[in-house]
Write a structure and sequence with these properties.
TagF_C; 17 helices; Rossmann fold; about 475 residues; 3 domains; six-stranded parallel sheet; alpha/beta
Length: about 475
């Protein structure tokens, strides 16, 4: 019997971690699939990883597509705000930009589209227009020609939020090829980030499935399939963890110290993040004067190249050791800053050899929970906060934080003055926080986080059969 051919579609680099660096490819082959990566990213899969790939050599969008897509998102958020009587959806809107003629023109056009289509029927009209724009995009015919040549039995899109995926998936649909997409992140559904429409949607958990049905009632229940996410699978592979002695020697760490990981955020989520790192360093300095022996491993956000932490790292070099994530910039856009396979090992090792993690509202709480380590969430304003700088407090009001089964799933740092006590108490007794964090992890990721890749392939097999 001929192998069933599956195109694993990478519209950009964000799907690499889940679908190229894990054992996803090997599992598919073991299940008798012919796995080919339909590669729209700039990462050379065949050259670097030995994976079969078909490169998409045409990367243009219709210039109007981003404008209509931005309007689509805002209209959805407006409709949800009205339907659910909830102001949270207003906070998901990024401000329109008016600096420079090009940005001003785009923002004016976006505002006009929203004003004239701010209804259910208007939303449908916007979506139809996006499809028409991408039908006219030369990339549509280019992708259609590739699909006709290679004849895949199914196309799996590795993220639902990339406009670069629209024309390719329209081509697959027109050829009668089944399509599926994977919901990329734990917060994406209530943020109106469903850019593509496919035959099937692979989601992390029962919670995410219920969200999809709530926000997109035109979908049928059998279209949304709970698979889990490959994102956390590497944490369950002990072979990826670098032995402590080697890790500490390689990165200049002191084996006599206990380390706290500070995981940095992007500038949008936490614009004053460097000052939380400083607060942590000061708390550690004070605790070390009281017979503790602590250090900080600082892991910045992979997409943050601002250099905003550098003065803090230098000022507190006795307390802070910076270990950057293994990512590299392969282009100028944020989604061309791509992970390297080694980062799975590096992250798992940092989790394993740290006592806890501290950050602003990051999903790193789950990475550490797998390693039985707790998390501190900073939840207070910095004195540097001024008009035009985003307060981190609104992050915790987002819909995805309502999934927390207990407020004690993290330790809350509610003031700079109380941080030292919060830290000391958590080091003394982490187990209650860890237990609640692991409960939260199950809500978000489901009960079988180790076998998500296998679940996805079983789902594909069922679809094809």
């Amino acid at each position: 019997m001929a192998k069933r051919k599956v195109f694993v579609f990478l519209p950009d680099g964000v799907g690499l971690r889940n679908f190229a660096y894990t054992n996803f490819n090997d599992l598919g082959q073991e299940m008798g699939m012919d796995v080919i990566y339909w590669n729209n990213s700039i990462f050379p899969l065949q050259e670097e990883l030995g994976l079969k790939e078909v490169k998409i050599g045409l990367n243009n969008l219709n210039p109007m597509t981003p404008i209509y897509s931005r309007a689509r998102k805002r209209i959805e958020l407006n409709l949800w705000q009205k339907e659910f009587n909830d102001p949270v959806y207003e906070t998901y809107k990024f401000p329109l930009k008016y600096n420079g003629l090009k940005k001003t023109t785009r923002s004016v056009m976006t505002s006009f589209l929203i004003a004239t289509n701010n209804s259910e029927n208007g939303l449908k009209a916007i979506k139809r227009r996006i499809s028409k724009l991408e039908y006219k995009n030369p990339k549509y015919q280019y992708c259609k020609n590739q699909l006709e040549k290679y004849k895949p039995d199914l196309v799996l899109c590795t993220t639902q939020r990339a406009t670069q995926a629209i024309s390719a998936l329209l081509a697959a649909k027109d050829l009668g090829i089944p399509t599926a997409t994977f919901i990329y992140s734990w917060d994406n559904v209530p943020k109106a980030m469903l850019v593509v429409e496919t035959d099937y949607y692979f989601v992390w958990s029962g919670l995410m499935k219920s969200e999809m049905l709530k926000y997109y009632p035109f979908l049928k229940e059998n279209q949304i399939i709970v698979t889990g996410t490959p994102q956390f699978e590497p944490h369950f592979n002990p072979d990826l963890v670098i032995p402590k002695a080697k890790f500490f020697a390689d990165y200049g760490l002191d084996e006599a110290k206990e380390y706290i990981c500070f995981s940095g955020d992007d500038t949008t989520t936490s614009p004053l993040d460097q000052y939380y790192l400083e607060d942590l360093a000061l708390a550690v300095r004070q605790l070390n004067k009281q017979d503790h022996n602590l250090g900080i491993i600082f892991r910045k956000a992979p997409v943050d190249h601002t250099g905003r932490y550098q003065k803090i790292v230098e000022k507190y070099k006795e307390e802070i050791t910076q270990i950057d994530p293994a990512w590299k910039a392969m282009g100028e856009q944020w989604n061309t800053i791509l992970p390297e396979p080694f980062d799975f090992s590096l992250l798992a090792t940092v989790c394993e050899h740290s006592e806890l993690v501290a950050n602003v509202c990051s999903s790193m709480v789950f990475d550490f929970a797998i390693h039985n380590k707790p998390c501190i969430y900073f939840n207070y304003e910095q004195p540097q906060l001024q008009k035009g700088i985003r307060d981190i407090g609104q992050n915790y009001k987002y819909v995805h934080f309502r999934s927390m089964p207990s407020e004690n799933a993290v330790a809350w740092a509610t003031s700079k003055e109380g941080l030292q006590d919060t830290l000391e108490n958590l080091l003394k007794d982490p187990k209650p926080i860890v237990a609640q964090a692991q409960n939260w992890f199950t809500v978000i990721v489901g009960k079988h986080p180790k076998v998500a890749s296998k679940n996805i392939w079983n789902t594909i097999k069922n679809i094809l059969n």
